[in-house]
């Protein structure tokens, strides 16, 4: 019930519990990268503030107000996002929303405005500033923000900042398990967490993207197969994969760098602990023992090939020759030659 049903962010929870224990008109700013859980916590905070049996631990979950929140129909909760596929919130929309919010709440003691502050330009921020300077006694503002440097200093000085922190590995696994990952192998969850820098929103979207793990497996297998491939395999089949998935090239290159990095870790120590493809550790150790001619220098050269390709792409080099060149350079470093 209440805040404790959410995983992690203990210091955020404890501050929010203090706030909802004695709610008053105030302006909160939730700060953290996209996908960290700001919106989820904002909804729970709004639910607690609007609940008719609220306690320090949050909303009761049973009163009519809580039911309305769950159904998405609470008249005193207003979420402000850009409308009609706009990139940012339109000032005329925000002006109308704030004017309406100043009218007394309909069923709760307060009105809560959750505003996506990342989507506000300076005109909207100036408008918000006026409301924050002279707040109505029943309005609670919750601003969601991933980059406070884009918010007016005058706004920052009037809000209570609530910073979101990184989740632990265990919290990440628990969040993934609760949201569709209950049957997924533990080490695969670990891989998704690391790949997403422990940002639950990102990890969950990868978990629910059937293509992503397939791509990871493809890139991983490509590196594992590299020693046995011939030039033509690299130039036709392997290039073809990159070409077809051109739109995901950044993701593919990161996966490539990770796999090479994992091989380097396994060359450096017998039982590496920092493998990023956590669920593929045995394959990596086997690769290193079967291809013992591959040295740290080879891996470093292969990684350099990827870095050079990234640099070349940034200056608009033609994709095909640059990508083929990268693949051939990696192949040269990993392939087995009798002369070695
Ligand atoms: Zn309630």
How would you sum up this structure, described in words?
There is one protein chain. The protein has 340 residues and is α/β, with parallel strands linked by helices. The chain folds into two domains: 2-163, P-loop containing nucleotide triphosphate hydrolases (Rossmann fold, 3-Layer(aba) Sandwich), CATH 3.40.50; 209-334, Zinc Finger, Delta Prime, domain 3 (Up-down Bundle). Helices cover 55% and strands 8% of the residues. The protein has 15 helices and five strands. It has helices spanning 10-21, 38-50, 64-71, 91-101, 122-133, 153-156, 169-181, 186-195, 200-207, 210-225, 231-244, 249-268, 281-290, 296-314, 319-334; strands spanning 27-31, 77-80, 111-116, 139-145, 160-163. A five-stranded parallel β-sheet has the order 2-3-4-1-5, sandwiched between helices. Helix 4 (91-101) links the parallel strand 2 and strand 3. It is elongated, with a radius of gyration of 26 Å. The protein starts with 9 loop residues before the first helix and ends in a 6-residue tail after the last helix. Zinc ion binds next to helix 3.
């Amino acid at each position: 019930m209440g805040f404790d049903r959410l995983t992690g962010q203990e210091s955020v929870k404890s501050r929010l519990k203090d706030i909802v224990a004695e709610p008053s008109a105030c302006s909160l700013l939730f700060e953290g990268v996209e996908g960290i859980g700001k919106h989820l916590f904002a909804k729970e905070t709004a639910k607690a503030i609007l609940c008719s049996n609220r306690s320090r631990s949050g909303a009761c979950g049973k009163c009519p107000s809580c039911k309305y929140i769950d159904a998405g129909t609470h008249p005193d909760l207003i979420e402000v996002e850009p409308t009609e596929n706009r990139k940012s919130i339109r000032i005329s929309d925000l002006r109308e929303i704030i004017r309406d919010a100043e009218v007394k709440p309909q069923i709760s003691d307060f009105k809560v405005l959750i505003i996506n502050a990342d989507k506000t330009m300076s005109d909207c921020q100036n408008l918000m500033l006026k409301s924050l300077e002279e707040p109505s006694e029943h309005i609670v503002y919750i601003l969601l923000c991933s980059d406070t440097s884009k918010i007016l200093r005058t706004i920052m000085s009037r809000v209570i900042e609530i910073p979101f922190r990184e989740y632990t590995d265990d919290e990440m696994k628990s969040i993934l398990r609760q949201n569709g990952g209950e049957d997924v192998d533990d080490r695969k969850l670990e891989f998704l967490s690391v790949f997403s820098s422990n940002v639950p929103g990102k990890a969950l979207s990868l978990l629910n993207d059937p293509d992503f793990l397939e791509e990871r497996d493809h890139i991983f297998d490509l590196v594992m197969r590299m020693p046995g491939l011939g030039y033509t395999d690299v130039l036709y089949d392997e290039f073809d994969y990159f070409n077809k998935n051109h739109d995901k090239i950044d993701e593919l290159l990161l996966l490539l760098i990770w796999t090479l990095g994992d091989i380097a870790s396994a060359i450096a120590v017998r039982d590496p602990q920092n493998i990023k493809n956590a669920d593929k550790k045995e394959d990596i150790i086997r690769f290193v023992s079967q291809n013992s001619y591959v040295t740290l220098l080879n891996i470093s050269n292969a990684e350099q090939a990827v870095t050079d390709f990234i640099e070349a792409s940034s200056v608009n080099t033609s994709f095909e020759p640059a990508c083929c060149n990268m693949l051939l350079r990696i192949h040269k470093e990993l392939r087995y030659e009798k002369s070695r």
